[in-house]
Here is the input.
Amino acid sequence: MGDHEKLIATLHPLERQVLPFLTDDITVEELKAKTGMQDVEIIRALQWLSNKQVLTLDKTSRFIISLGTNGNFYLSQGLPERRFLDALSEGPLSLAAVREQASLNGDELNVCVGKLKKMGAILFGQEISMTPKGRQLLQSTFPEEHFLGSLPRDTATLTPEETKVYQDLKERRDFIQTKEEKTFTVTLTDLGK
Here is the structure.
């Protein structure tokens, strides 16, 4: 019995299903369409065939950022901090009046106060007022708005500034989500050909 016959005799049914469709650089998605198998079955079969030196299997991962539920909502309705500043555009207001006028819940209000105070966009006195920095901010696009509008994105394409915005948005509940996408690349060995 030759090497090929011994190999064929040891093949698992999943390997036998995949084998006729194997070519260099075929993807799991293409194999799925051709075989009707599940991703996990195909990957398992490819790993087994790799162990038998029929092919080499390279895995690469990329991380894709997409909008979360809140991110989608705020992209269409405006970030809480923009709505906070919008409420102050006519003049100073009490915190309760800002909350009502901007339609903010307690968590959103606390985040806005912290962020906008840190940025020097608001001043606290008898009432809350907007600073010139706040007026300038209101006239521009917030980095978070620009970032949310650019999604979905691969984390590998982020600039250092975008990485900072990404890290900040990860801290906010359900603004964004990051999912790993795995890609498997098949290269047939001489035995596999």
Observations:
- The beta strands are 55-67, 122-124, 128-130, 153-154, 176-188.
- The two ends are 19 Å apart (CA to CA).
- The chain is about 50% helix and 20% strand.
- Residues 39-51 form the longest helix (13 residues).
